[in-house]
Backbone:
């Protein structure tokens, strides 16, 4: 649940950043927007087979979740530490 | 030399076995008609059989079911349904067919006779309609199935352990027999038609194809029977056969009586090769082939020669079938691969065309903007789920999908085949196919993954504590 919420949050934030660019492309380059949408649809189609691929491997879904959680943890903790250090660094630089 | 002799021993053994097996149908005697060993009935049985008067009486059951019986041209389960407990059966074995006579003391009783494709099936194949008192019904018991089981259970599950002997009816010769041959090169489709006053069991229809000189029951045949308005039965048997080579072959279609003798034969000198239809009329052969042993008793040389011939013929048939099967499978595989490659090329072609078309539109829109004022753009500042967003967030979406999705069966349309390639969720299939083995596999896989994650996690924790190997600097507040 926590991992899912975390992923949703990241996807939403990226969506916020990309929204103006998407809107610009949709309005001024509609053909490019259509092409990108088709590529996105193709990717979504590929992703729709992920569940079947997991079932072929025979690995329990709980173990898939464990692997994802592990990697999310491993890859995000250093990033969080880095951001905390960055904030502290800025504080030291900007403090009166 | 000695080694070669040892090598030949199993070959000789195999030849002997094959020879014995291939000769056994020819030299063996006709299988005996089964005899019912126990015709007594349990005291609580509802139907009482009288073997002397060929009759049986029923007490309280409203159903009597016969298994392995022919009734009005259908070899199915015949069910007699009564609506009065005092109704009785009687049959007369002196007729050409075994007739059933329905007798009752109450003239208002009605008996239904119907038959079903399987015991307990809800589908009634045919129904005789309501029968009046004294109606004679032709019920034919095949000679090789004279031990007829019967049941008094409406669900037909309570089959009688004891069986009763049914008198074998006389076996008159058919009145007409003929066949046609539809030629398509070496592939011949034979359609035989036999008219008889009674139903002809399928195991008594035999063919001699000419390339093999024995009268035999052919595999892969389709047999149907119809009851003609004049009371006779017409049995049609369709048989496909592929000859090894072209030439003229003497083809026989024969009906054998209960003793295994030819009752009537139809003959055609078939010229195999080319196309067209050839037909053989009834009884054109006055000297039909006899389903008798090929070799006379004690003719060892004939046994060996015939056995070796049958052995090599069997080996040839085996490899011929094997190569035909492999050729068919390879043909299907190459056809499927061709279809898939063609589909991929077509899809790529469409995609490239679409991309080039898109770039053309992009370039034209760059120089001739078609958008409205800037407010419209900012009104659309929402998180859209398409375009650039989908591509950039694809890895995250993949992880998200991997974490949350469940399996759905896939149906991929196959080009040129007109059907879908159905890929079911394999977990359920694994469970049903491997059972506990799959559970063990899942346990072992889970254990291995857990162990690997734990080891990696401890390793990283150790590195985190070691300042020399720490890629993440300790926070210096």
Residues:
């Amino acid at each position: 649940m926590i991992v899912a919420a975390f992923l949703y949050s990241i996807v939403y934030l990226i969506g916020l950043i990309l929204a103006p660019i998407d809107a610009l492309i949709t309005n001024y380059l509609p053909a490019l927007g259509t092409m990108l949408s088709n590529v996105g649809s193709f990717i979504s189609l590929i992703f729709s087979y992920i569940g079947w691929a997991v079932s072929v491997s025979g690995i329990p879904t709980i173990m898939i979740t464990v692997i994802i959680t592990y990697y999310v943890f491993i890859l995000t903790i250093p990033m969080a530490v880095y951001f905390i250090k960055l904030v502290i660094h800025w504080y030291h630089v900007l403090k009166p | 030399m000695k080694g070669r002799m040892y090598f030949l021993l199993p070959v000789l053994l195999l030849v002997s076995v094959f020879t014995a097996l291939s000769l056994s149908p020819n030299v063996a005697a006709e299988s005996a008609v089964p005899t019912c060993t126990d015709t007594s009935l349990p005291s609580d049985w509802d139907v009482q059989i009288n073997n002397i008067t060929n009759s049986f009486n029923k007490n309280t059951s409203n159903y009597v079911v016969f298994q392995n019986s022919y009734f009005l041209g259908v070899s199915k389960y015949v069910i007699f349904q009564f609506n009065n407990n005092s109704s009785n059966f009687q049959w007369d074995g002196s007729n050409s067919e075994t007739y059933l006579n329905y007798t009752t003391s109450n003239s208002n009783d009605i008996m239904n006779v119907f038959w079903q494709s399987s015991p307990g099936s809800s589908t009634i194949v045919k129904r005789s309609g309501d029968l009046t008192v004294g109606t004679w019904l032709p019920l034919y018991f095949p000679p090789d199935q004279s031990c007829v089981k019967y049941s008094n259970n409406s669900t037909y599950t309570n089959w009688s352990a004891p069986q009763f002997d049914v008198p074998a009816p006389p076996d008159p010769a058919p009145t007409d027999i003929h066949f046609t041959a539809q030629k398509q090169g070496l592939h011949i489709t034979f359609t035989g038609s036999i008219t008889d006053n009674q139903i002809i069991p399928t195991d008594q229809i035999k063919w001699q194809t000419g390339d093999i000189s024995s009268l035999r029951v052919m595999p892969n045949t389709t047999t149907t029977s119809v009851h003609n308005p004049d009371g006779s039965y017409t049995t049609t048997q369709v048989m496909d056969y592929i000859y090894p080579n072209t030439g003229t072959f003497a083809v026989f279609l024969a009906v054998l009586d209960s003793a295994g003798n030819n009752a009537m034969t139809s003959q055609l000198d078939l010229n195999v090769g080319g196309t067209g239809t050839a037909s053989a009329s009834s009884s054109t052969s006055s000297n039909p082939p006899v389903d008798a042993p090929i070799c006379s008793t004690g003719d060892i040389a004939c046994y060996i020669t015939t056995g070796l011939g049958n052995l090599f013929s069997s080996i040839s048939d085996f490899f011929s079938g094997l190569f035909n099967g492999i050729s068919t499978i390879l043909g299907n595989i190459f056809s499927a691969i061709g279809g898939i490659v063609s589909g991929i090329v077509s899809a790529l072609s469409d995609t490239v065309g679409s991309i080039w078309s898109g770039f053309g539109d992009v370039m034209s829109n760059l120089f001739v903007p078609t958008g409205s004022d800037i407010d419209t753009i900012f009104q659309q500042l929402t998180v859209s789920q398409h375009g650039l967003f989908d591509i950039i967030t694809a890895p995250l979406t993949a992880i998200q999908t991997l974490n949350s999705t469940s399996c759905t069966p896939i149906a991929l349309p196959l080009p040129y085949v007109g059907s879908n390639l159905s890929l079911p969720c394999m977990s359920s299939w694994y469970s049903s196919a491997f059972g506990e083995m799959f559970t063990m596999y899942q346990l072992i896989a889970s254990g291995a993954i857990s162990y690997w994650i734990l080891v990696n996690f401890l390793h990283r924790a150790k590195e985190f504590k070691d300042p020399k190997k720490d890629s993440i600097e300790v926070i210096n507040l």
Notes: Chain B touches chain A through 68 residues (CB under 8 Å). The mean pLDDT of chain B is 62.
